[in-house]
Amino acid sequence: MTTFNLKQYSGSGVLIVDTNSSSLLLVNDYTKNYNCCGGFIKYNSDDLQRLEKTASEELYEETRTLISCDLDHLTTCPFVDLHFNGEMFRCYILKIKCESDICQQFENFNLDSLPADNDYLETTSLVFFHLKQFKRKKSLIKIDATSTAIGTDRKKYPLNPRAISVIKAAIKENLL
User: Fold this and answer.
1) In 63-151, which ranges are continuous DSSP H helix?
2) CA–CA distance, 154 with 148 (Å, rounded to integer)
3) Which of 95, 97, 110, 113 is deepest in the core (most CB within 10 A)?
4) This prediction's pTM
């Protein structure tokens, strides 16, 4: 039986995979790069669902309530664990059918309808990225070297190193 220490994790998140378009949906976060949804653990270290709760909340906040996932479903999702910047981060792989206009919905979202909490304002946009560019070895090497990828709108976008690490780990484990 494998045991692991929940206390070793400093953060968790969600990588959104749109099954309609075989794309990843990433958020432009406070680093000004596109990233998977995620953040630091906000729960007591004795809470056995602290990873799932944090990931679920980050998904909901960073997509401005447009995407949510209940804890029961999230616990069934595959995940990758990363040593990132000296800390452990768990990222769940959420495969869903996204609405094709979700990026536009995000842009047009009435911010006044959100709780008065800056957590909902950490992200500024959503972009789809075709999954196939990450699965091609040459392309992934270039993405890793330049920290950029091409969105489905054919524009080049900066990627957060955490997102690149999550994607590479998920591909290595055949989760994408």
Assistant:
1) 71-74, 102-107, 132-135, 137-146
2) 12
3) 95
4) 0.94
Percent of the chain with pLDDT over 70: 97
Name residues of the chain where pLDDT drops below 50. 1-3
Q: Tell me phi and psi for residue 135, to 5 degrees.
A: -85, -20
| Cα–Cα distance for residue pair 71/23, rounded to 1 Å | 23
**For the chain, first and last CA: distance in Å?**
27
Q: Which residues pair with 84 in a beta bridge?
A: 87
pLDDT digits (tens, 9 = 90+) for 85-132: 788 999 999 999 999 999 999 999 998 888 877 778 889 999 999 999
Domain 7-172, CATH among 3.90.1150.10, 2.30.22.10, 3.40.50.150, 3.90.79.10: 3.90.79.10
